[in-house]
Amino acid sequence: MSNLFLAYIPGTSPIHKLDPRTKIVAVMIASIIIFMASSFAEMALIGGVFLILLLISNVSYKSTLASVKPMLLFLAIIFLMQLFLTEGKTMFSLFGFNATLEGLNTGILLTARFLYLLMFASLLTATTAPSLITVGIERMLRPLPLKKAGISSFDLATMMTLSIHFLPLLYEHFMYLKDAQISRGLDFRNSPLKTIYSLSVPMIKIAFRSADEVAFAMESRCYQGMRRTSLYNPRIQKKDFLALSVFIAVMWAILIFI
């Protein structure tokens, strides 16, 4: 599972030992700083911060690449849309569309933002067990008056964690399905419409079947969504405050001094 999309990788690094709420807040802060960054120098420094965190976590770079790989097409579309649809100084033309210098700069920055969001999210899921993510989200949502909306913090945290849990599993099923279709003679290049049909229909069936199996398993264990005990009882310690303070200071300094 270590090479799957947003999969958890067990370890004993300092980042693994941090409270899940500390890492969740850190990712939220990183997301804000990433979208506030507006220059290549700032984006480069944010990338440097991520590399340092990756080294501290002892997580293989292959897991990060595995998290980015499924989104490469999406990132390429974002870049091309900015490149050809942004007005400015024309560099070259292709099929009647002008690629502009301003579009190139905007496309690189916007693509880098989404890329960094994926990498920080992958670092969170790689260093935090799904059960701990559930506990961390639930503890953060507990003070909110969610009962007035007919939902509890336990329900919301469970739904979010199940969504994260399903991503690597569905990606694994997709890769198996793609290989199976190729072995049966499906040509992705010559028949794109048939490819979409051949992959999307079985994937929808697999997704519904997996969701039904999880729902049945939860019902058989008498899950009711009310206040529940947990195997884990994480506590925010001094090291969590210290790590979060250092992270915020470094990320904020990137915006102020660059």
Number of domains: 1
- Tell me the strand percentage band: under 5%
Low-confidence regions: none
How widely separated are the two ends?
A: 39 Å
Query: Describe the biggest sheet?
Result: 2 strands, antiparallel
How are the SSEs ordered, and which strands pair?
Layout: H1 20-36, H2 40-57, H3 61-68, H4 72-85, E1 90-94, E2 97-100, H5 101-127, H6 130-141, H7 153-183, H8 192-220, H9 238-257
Antiparallel strand pairs: 1-2
Explain how this protein is built.
It is a single chain. 68% of the residues lie in helices and 3% in strands. It is mainly α. It is globular, with a radius of gyration of 21 Å. The chain has one domain. The longest helix is centred in the middle third of the chain and has 31 residues. Strand 1 and strand 2 form a beta hairpin. A two-stranded antiparallel ribbon has the order 1-2. The chain starts with 19 loop residues before the first helix and ends with a helix. The mean pLDDT is 82. Helix 1 packs antiparallel against helix 5 and helix 4 runs antiparallel to helix 5.
